[in-house]
Design goal:
The protein has 2 helices and no strands. The protein is mainly α and 72 residues long. The chain has one domain. The chain is elongated, with a radius of gyration of 17 Å. Keywords: Membrane, Transmembrane, Transmembrane helix.
Length: 72
């Protein structure tokens, strides 16, 4: 397996784990807190997760390009 593929696999695993944690936190918050607050929290968490995923994807693409350029 080429080195850049290892990087991609590691990043994907990290993203999946982080998203699972976020989902658990959201569920706990939903169970514990009142309705209006829950809606706000869920919206904020979703926005944050989307932003984080986009940033991670951009970073992965940049890293892969750099690694490929360096290797070749």
């Amino acid at each position: 397996m080429p080195p850049y593929m290892v990087v991609v696999v590691v990043v994907v695993v990290v993203v999946v784990v982080v998203e699972e944690i976020v989902v658990v936190v959201v569920v706990v918050v939903v169970v514990v807190v009142e309705e209006v607050v829950v809606v706000v929290v869920v919206v904020v968490v979703v926005v944050v997760v989307v932003v984080v995923v986009v940033v991670v994807v951009v970073v992965v693409v940049v890293v892969v390009v750099v690694v490929v350029v360096v290797v070749e």
